[in-house]
Design a protein that fits this description.
Blueprint lengths: L2 H15 L14 H10 L13 H5 L2 H14 L7 E7 L5 E6 L2 H19 L15 H15 L18 H9 L5 H12 L2 E3 L2 E3 L23
Parallel strand pairs: 1-3
Antiparallel strand pairs: 1-2, 3-4
Helix pairs in contact: 1-5, 2-5
Length: 228
């Protein structure tokens, strides 16, 4: 059985057992084996971050750097690097900002995401489709079509919140996390990611709200990761 699946099953079981409580000691699930598995799952041709390092570069040193990363993460000494921001075209002719973490930062984000996903998956409604493992926009449209045709619905409400992810209130996000996540190591790491500088046009700015889209913890459609 895949090691990551086993870890996710253990976390899901713990979340079900303590359904009304916030969980602690979750960072213990992040070990060298999980980090290697997460590294292998990264896009090997993905764009590099502020350090210009690519997946292939890190891969040559992975056996030395992954244990160092784990030690820094667990001890709280890991510092979230700046995020490189680029802009990509949207379908309506506008540009969408995209944050590009370093390979190592993306690796750690993926590992934390693997720990958080089974906790929140247990409390989602079946009909929730946004950014969930095994869920897609196509499935959402198909279910909507079935509901409309079979139940003779007359109204559909379509709402689009402009720049929602770029304007998330950090205080509200922390309060939301308080309900399910009380692991100090992971919470401190999330705070570091929220406060990480954003490099754009040679200048670094430090956000007071919002979450950059582009990293493994960012809001996006992906078959294996949770976004927040």
């Amino acid at each position: 059985m895949n090691e990551v699946l086993t870890v996710e099953m253990q976390i899901a079981a713990r979340a079900r057992k303590y359904r009304g409580e916030a969980l602690t000691n979750l960072h213990d699930f992040i070990d060298i084996g999980l980090l290697h598995d997460c590294f292998d799952s990264l896009n090997k041709k993905g764009a590099s971050g502020v350090d210009a390092e690519k997946w292939t570069d890190y891969n040559k040193q992975r056996n030395e750097r992954i244990p160092e990363l784990l030690t820094a993460f667990r001890s709280g000494k890991y510092r979230a690097p700046n995020i490189r921001r680029v802009f990509i075209p949207k379908g309506d002719g506008k540009l969408r900002p995209l944050g590009l973490p370093t390979v190592e930062d993306k690796l750690l984000q993926t590992a934390v995401s693997r720990v958080l996903t089974p906790i929140y998956e247990g409390i989602f409604y079946h009909e929730s489709y946004g950014f969930r493992p095994g869920k897609s926009q196509h499935q959402a449209v198909e279910e909507l079509s079935r509901e409309v045709s079979m139940n003779r619905m007359r109204y559909i409400i379509d709402a689009d919140m402009q720049n929602y992810f770029g304007s998330i209130n950090h205080g509200c996000l922390r309060e939301f996390l308080d309900l399910k996540i009380k692991d100090g190591v992971i919470r401190k790491m999330i705070d570091k990611w929220l406060k990480a500088g954003i490099l754009e046009n040679g200048q670094v700015v430090y956000p007071t709200e919002g979450t950059p889209q582009g990293g493994s913890l960012a809001p996006r459609t992906h078959p294996q990761t949770l976004s927040f």
